[in-house]
Amino acid sequence: MITPRDRQPAHELAPRIREAALRLGDVPAYVYDLPALHEHASGVRQALPGVELYYAVKANPAAELLQTLAAHVDGFEVSSGGEHAHVAALLPGKPLALGGPGKTDAELRLPCHRLHVESPNELRRLLATGREADVLLRLNPDLPVEGAALTMSGPFGMDEAGVRECLPLFTDRVRLRGLHSHLASGLDAPELLRLAGTLLDTEHDEVNLGGGMAVSYASPESRFDWRAYGAGLAAMRRDGQRVRVEPGRALTAYCGYYVTKVVDVKRVRGEAYAIVLGGTHHLRTPVTKGHDQPFTVLPTGDGPVLTDEPVTVVGQLCTPKDVFARKIVTSVRVGDTVVFEMAGAYAWNISHHDFLMHPKPGFHYVRD
Asked: What ranges make up the beta strands (E) of the chain?
């Protein structure tokens, strides 16, 4: 049962984001806080001594975000030929790790620092290309995972039998460097460290632990404990072992905002609704993950009002799934500006943009 809860007051928005939102003429629009991203990524980098840090581009491939992150990460993880071309053109020379299931022969030929092989058949296809490559085998081990928002089971990677099948296939041209595992998303530091302890207990000299660091949309002020995670990895990795992590959402979620305006308010069978311009075809995250997207209301309107009551915030789409947040206690009137927070990852880039052919959002980058 969904129960009403209070929202944070508008003054908790960073002043530069509040000012940017109020300056917007055309909405909906995304606003990205590049100084906040720089500060957050710098802190993550400092918390992981001796650990290689790659950014998973699938979380958000916006050029401005990648350029900001480039100063703090050792490389980028890409999962398609399109992502590879995008990052290689934007940041030439930056190391790329190529992953993803179902690679085409053309993708297997792409130059990269590491190639994450998903199956024995994919390895055989890689060998048939005639290229040189440094490979990590993606292992999908049978380990219990507790508290995950999403587990990467099924077709991702291979089991121990698949790894054993791959081992005799390597040559001087296609070289085995180690293992890759990304087991789940939404895990806190103690659970990730528990899994890492098992994965690092291997004869392989290189282990990629993937991402999966928890991001809480219910408690935006809560952050993954990067310092505890870094200290734990430092304590458990053996001398000479190369360890890499690939966060995505946990790096960029906090720097993005989706700004829109209330176009209508109403009650239907006793339930209050605020309808905003745009919708989940711009910001799919809440409907995908089944959460209430945190938001702040800026009082810019002068129309009909809902006052201090549970309000469900929806978009313009002709589907009951076009919901940003349900039964949130707030006051909102037509013309108010609504700033949805934590919209910097798996937001615009995974949304169904062309449904109903509404206008695309604008994109703005706060630089100081």
From this structure: 5-6, 29-33, 52-56, 75-78, 96-98, 114-117, 133-138, 150-151, 174-180, 184-185, 206-208, 242-245, 256-268, 271-276, 295-298, 305-314, 323-333, 337-340, 362-366
